[in-house]
Write a structure and sequence with these properties.
alpha/beta; 8-stranded parallel β-sheet; 37% helix; globular; binds 3-[(4S)-2,5-dioxoimidazolidin-4-yl]propanoic acid; binds fe (iii) ion
Length: 394
């Protein structure tokens, strides 16, 4: 029989209530067998006991949108923007995503991994148990594959689950037309990455500075043919119709969404897609237009919250800070923010076995030195993690 661990004297935020609330259970115990939750309730017959001493226990957090594999940094671009240049101006001047592409191509796999592990460690230290990692800074077949191999290597090197997204349609490389890039590089890279087992989902950037809906549709069609789910960076800087395209392809999620409309929210509800809110990019870019949170609530679109950790628009290494910002900048309640980094983040990755505390779920848990779950969103730059359990192990 697999090893049994029990956690006693806990306040559980199960995140499984029908009302979208915390699903709080006080004076609770949990029994874990192997890497799964066996029962919520009396926990007899355990080989090992953790006395939580009244602490809050939540599902381990899930960062469902990151770009933590990348070379170099963009501190100079940060300075340029403070001197008055816009994000689009920086991109058109050869900065932006394309400069990270050059740095990522130049950095070898071992060094990319070492840099990515530091970022993963920062997230793990905040109770994160699952991290989504995108490619998209290669824009050539070899480097897109290199990024995805490094992403998989993070999951092998650390006690964390990594979910990959192929983001070949992230930017148009210098000297190439967008359509030719999609046909000659992006689609062959997707095929090659999929053949190596490196792709869990397919993403794209639908924006004036990147790809239009017709180009993204070609990528989504190939993803469908390969049996891969899709997601999309949509309506971040303008409304190009990416959200409706994503919904038509039954996307797991549409992400950013500052310029999404009520109709977009309705389309997402019909396709059961998750709205992934990325307040770090909103903050960094001094965006003033907010994602339509009221429309998401009205139409019943689940909302997730992620760091979007990337070297340009969101150099943010804290998911707890993203939760705080989702509340302060976008008006989410702390319960919505926590659902956004647990239950709904799991949905945004197509994972049904985590993000809640219930029998049969993965035993990925975070034990916090707080009295109430709202405290996780309330403080700025404070990490109250007491202990993380990953796959039933401390
Ligand atoms: N949207 C973003 O905010 C990031 N990528 C994307 O598609 C920005 C990536 C970068 O600036 O490096
Ligand atoms: Fe992103």
């Amino acid at each position: 029989m697999a090893r049994r661990l029990s956690i006693t004297n806990a306040v559980l935020a199960c995140m499984d209530g029908p009302d979208g609330g915390y699903g709080l259970v006080r004076d609770a115990a949990l029994l874990i067998e192997g890497d799964r939750i066996l029962s919520v309730g009396p926990a007899e017959g355990a080989d090992e006991v953790i006395d939580a001493r009244g602490r809050l226990v939540t599902p381990a957090l899930i960062d469902c949108h990151t770009h933590i594999v990348h070379g170099g940094n963009r501190a100079r671009e940060f300075e340029m923007r403070l001197e008055g240049a816009s994000y689009e101006e920086v991109a058109r001047a050869g900065g932006g995503i394309v400069s990270t592409v050059a740095a990522t191509r130049e950095t070898d796999e071992a060094r990319l991994l070492a840099q990515a592990l530091r970022r993963a460690d920062a997230l793990i230290a905040e109770g994160v148990g699952t991290i989504e990692v995108k490619s998209g800074y290669g824009l050539d077949i070899e480097t897109e594959l290199k990024m995805l191999r490094v992403a998989r290597a993070i999951g092998a090197a650390r006690p964390v689950n990594v979910v990959t997204s192929f983001l070949g349609a992230h930017a148009v490389p210098k000297g190439m037309a967008a359509d030719a890039y999609i046909d000659e590089v992006c689609l062959p890279a997707l095929e090659a990455a999929h053949a190596e087992g490196l792709v869990d989902a397919v993403d794209g950037f639908c924006e004036g500075i990147a790809f239009d809906t017709a180009q993204i549709a070609r990528v989504f069609e190939r993803a469908g043919a390969l049996g891969l789910p899709v997601k999309l960076h949509a309506e971040q800087l303008s409304n190009l119709g990416g959200t409706r395209l994503a919904a038509a392809h039954r996307a797991l999620s549409a992400d950013h969404l500052e310029y999404a409309t009520d109709d977009d929210a309705r389309a997402m509800a019909a396709s059961a897609s998750v709205a992934v809110l990325l307040p770090g990019a909103f903050y960094t870019l001094h965006e003033t237009r907010k994602p339509p949170v009221a429309a998401f609530r009205n139409h019943g679109v689940p909302m997730a919250v992620a760091t979007d950790w990337n070297p340009g628009s969101s150099p943010m290494g804290s998911l707890l800070l993203a939760m705080n910002m989702a509340c302060t900048l976008f008006g989410l309640t702390p319960a919505e923010a926590l659902a956004g980094t647990t239950r709904n983040a799991a949905r945004a990755l197509g994972l049904a076995d985590r993000g809640t505390i219930a029998p049969g779920q993965r035993a990925d848990l975070a034990i916090w030195d707080v009295e109430a779950p709202a405290e996780l969103s309330y403080r700025i730059g404070v990490n109250p993690l007491h202990k993380r359990i990953f796959g039933g192990r401390e």
